[in-house]
Specification:
Blueprint (H helix, E strand, L loop, with lengths): L1 E4 L5 E5 L2 E5 L24 E4 L4 H4 L2 H8 L3 E4 L3 E4 L2 E5 L9 E3 L3 E4 L4 E4 L2 E6 L6 E5 L2 E5 L13 E6 L2 E5 L16 E5 L12 H11 L3 E5 L3 E3 L2 E4 L4 H10 L3 E2 L7 E3 L1
Parallel strand pairs: 3-4, 4-5, 5-9, 15-16, 16-17, 17-20
Antiparallel strand pairs: 1-2, 1-21, 2-3, 6-7, 7-8, 10-11, 11-14, 12-13, 14-15, 18-19
Helix pairs in contact: 3-4
């Protein structure tokens, strides 16, 4: 099995005939506004998983689905049914004003699972925290909730294929319900900027590792760009790695395009 990382929470998981894309979103650096997962990879993707509807996680989902004809798995709040047709929030729409059809969409509630080919995908509880971003001398704050686009459809995934399990927690604050998941690989955010953050920080992520008891951890969604801000959601990944390894758990720090094999 091969895992590739493309910043934020964007990953490709390849094993045998399966190529799973997690969060095919947009790079938000104003000098490189491009797809996180390279377009050269789109056609060969077999499964698309969306942890929520923010642009860095969701922006390219419909385009990847069109190029690959792959099924899309997401949280139920990202979808609705009208006249028997499943619609998802428009990845590049404004707010919740537009919804578009996906050919093969599988919205899941927490605890629900779907088997697509020989891949099992189960929805895991996540909670997206509020976003607070400095813009010039202002600070923009968005609170997830009913009628809000921020964090819509927030969900994590437990993926089972070829005898291995991978848990990806998207953007989430710490949840006690994660206890005992025990995956082979855990992908979790560590770049929460203090109180009222939209994700865990290093301290909370370490608590999550203790709860979940994985064999290997991949930290993500930290030290990333946001428009003209070069480094938002800052975190000390080397500190996190040292503390994880004290727990007897392997930790892999991955940069853009890095590959690991397990």
């Amino acid at each position: 099995m091969k895992i590739r990382h493309f910043l934020y929470n964007s990953f490709l998981i390849e094993s045998g005939k399966n190529k799973i894309a997690i969060d095919p979103g947009q790079n938000l650096w104003i000098f490189n506004l491009s797809s996180l997962i390279p377009e050269t990879e789109w056609k060969s993707i077999t499964h698309i998983l969306i942890t929520h509807g923010d642009p860095d996680h969701y922006w390219q989902a419909d385009r990847v689905a069109e190029a690959s004809n792959a099924p899309v798995v997401c949280g139920k709040e990202l979808a609705k049914v009208e006249n028997g047709e499943t619609l998802l929030v428009d990845p590049r729409g404004r707010g919740l004003t537009s919804w578009i059809p996906f050919k093969d969409a599988h919205p899941l509630d927490i605890g629900e699972a779907v088997i697509l080919g020989d891949v099992k995908i189960e929805a895991v509880k996540t909670v997206h925290g509020p976003i607070s971003v400095p813009i010039l001398w202002f600070r923009i704050r968005k609170q997830p909730g009913p009628g809000e686009r921020v964090g819509i459809g927030s969900v994590g995934f437990k993926i089972t294929l070829d005898g291995k399990t991978i848990v990806n927690l998207g953007d989430s604050i710490l949840q006690t319900e994660w206890a005992g998941l025990k995956p082979d690989i855990l992908m979790l955010p560590i770049g929460g900027p203090g109180d009222n953050a939209w994700t865990m920080d290093v301290s909370d992520a370490l608590e999550a590792v203790k709860l979940i008891a994985p064999k290997m951890v991949i930290p993500c969604h930290y030290n990333v760009a946001f428009f003209w801000i070069k480094n938002i959601a800052s975190a000390d990944d080397q500190l996190f790695k040292r503390e994880v390894e004290k727990l007897g758990v392997e930790c892999s720090i991955m940069r853009y395009g890095d590959v690991i094999e397990i």
